[in-house]
Structure formats: structure tokens, C-alpha cells
Amino acid sequence: MRDTIIFLSEQGLEIEGVFRRSANVTLVKEVQLKYNSGQAVNFRDMEDVHLAAVILKIFLRELPEPLLTYQLYNDIVNLASVSSDSQVTVMKTLVESLPEENYASPRYLITFLGQVSANSEVNKMTNSNLAVVFGPNLLWWRGNAIGPINNFTRTLLDQHHLVFA
Question: The domain containing residue 105 runs over which residues?
């Protein structure tokens, strides 16, 4: 995740729709095989920002458990029932309750996505657009709760400087 985000930070912040376009399926599979066999992947050699973006989303989606964990699923889905002036405090508490590795990874990812969103005039990736792309990759389970998950993700992006403070 770190290598992909570093590359995207350097090369992808001004690419329109950076997380909305697909990549060559053959290249995606080749990169996945490299990662799965412990080989280094150098996105600079491939010169394909969309490939790196797809790999990041696939990595998150294929984790055995989502970064935001099944344990927080109900609290996240029900965040809308919390008063808006208490939501940041509740989100901070939820995120801080994550296991250490599950806290560090979303903090790193969301901080990066804040940089992406800061360039939304060029890349068209607002916090709302990023939430639609990343919400289902940060938390999933059963049921049809994609709306609440995306709303949580958008609020997390909007307030990341307070949630991860």
C-alpha cells in the first residue's frame, strides 16, 4: 500500500478521475502475481497511474477483513443516527479502537486521499467521489449498507484532520 500511495502522490494527484478509470487486466494480474510472490513492483517503470490506483483498490478489497473491521460495522453504518456535532468525536473513538495496524493504514490512506481531494479542481476527485470509490473497500459485510458506509467515508475524509489528530 505504501509504495502504491507514494507513486500516486508523486504522479497521480493531477490525473483526472485517477481512481475512476480501469487498467489493463493483464498488467493488473502481473502486478498482483509479483506482489503475491514477494517481488518488488516499480510503478515508475510501468508509467501507468491508473494501474497503481487499481492495485490499491484491489489490495483493500481483497484483505481478509476490511481495514475498518467487522467489529465496527454496526457503529459505522449507524453513525447517521448520531447528532452531527458529535459525529467527529464518535468517529475518532471508533477509529482509535482499531487494532494498531488497522489504525495506521487508514490514517495513511485517508491522509493521502486528502491530498487527492485537495487537487479536485484538476483531478475531479472530491471527498464525495473518493467516498464512493473507497467506502466499499474500507468496510464491507452483508446487507445493503453502501450508502451509510460511503457517508461515513466522506465524513472521515472531510474531518480527517480532527479524527486522526
Answer: 1-164
**What are 99-136's pLDDT values in tens digits?**
988 899 999 999 999 999 999 999 999 999 999 999 99
Cell numbers 487537487 correspond to 119
**CATH (domain of 156):** 1.10.555.10
Taking 3-state DSSP, the helix, strand and coil percentages for the chain, each rounded to the nearest 5, stand at: 70, 0, 30
Q: Give the chain's domain count.
A: 1
Q: List CB contacts of 7: < 8 A, sequence separation 6 or more.
A: 43, 44, 49, 52
Alpha-carbon span 24 to 9, nearest angstrom: 21
User: Residues 14-60: pLDDT tens digits?
Assistant: 999 999 999 999 999 999 999 999 999 999 988 899 999 999 999 99
Q: Do residues 70 and 145 make contact, with C-beta atoms less than 8 angstroms apart?
A: no
Q: Is 95 helix (H, G, I), strand (E, B) or coil?
A: helix
Cα separation, 16 vs 102, whole angstroms: 29
Whole-number Å distance between alpha carbons of 22 and 18: 9
